[in-house]
Amino acid sequence: MNDESKSQQLKHNDPAGVEVSQQLKSAFFAQDELEWVDWVMPDTWFKLLAINPITGGFTMMLKVAANNKAPIHGHIGSVEGFILEGGFAYEDDWGYAGDYVQEPAGINHKPVTGADGMVMFAIAHGPLAGYNDDGSVALILDAREMYRMAEAAGAASHVDKPAHWE
Ligand SMILES: [Fe+2]
Is the pLDDT score of 3 beyond 90? Predict the structure, then answer.
């Protein structure tokens, strides 16, 4: 093995003019202290962690009850998640605690949970869509609507509200 095969690593040098940034508030948030808020599907709950007012995406903790069948819904933006507890499936494709999950943009699906329900950390890169019985769109769930629901439940004070949402 020669040196060219090694990946480059950052060094503990002292680069000229590069300093550690000071953040206005802590980078950490004790999400355990938030109450779960009813979400848009039966027997599901969320904690809003962050919003992206540019894409309409949002970051949340999501909890789903045991043996839950989610209504069919669509993803306008993709979702990435990490299962923390329990497990769930898309048809016969099961994931469990410790698994990374990705829901591509443009798909419809109706996931189900198992006997343990599930808790996951999820980043929605864009909105979700729910449907009426006739197939028309019933709901667009974006960052603003997520913020509105969290705020109404008194669980959004840690999220900076964009000025144009006033
Ligand atoms: Fe989904």
Answer: no
Task: Name the H helices within 56-142.
Answer: none
Domains identified in the chain and CATH numbers: 43-156 (2.60.120.10)
Q: What is the whole-number distance in angstroms between the Cα of residue 149 and the centre of ligand 1?
A: 18
Return the ∠ at Cα 68 (arms to 71 and 152), rounded to 5°: 70
Spacing, Cα 103 to ligand 1 middle (Å) = 7
Residues 6+ apart with CB under 8 A from 126: 55, 56, 57, 75, 76, 77, 78, 105, 142
Residue 87 has pLDDT above 70, yes or no: yes
Q: Are 25 and 160 in contact (CB under 8 A)?
A: no
Nearest to residue 120, comparing CAs of 91, 145, 95, 144?
95
34: amino acid identity, one letter = L
CA–centroid distance, 110 to ligand 1, in Å, is 7
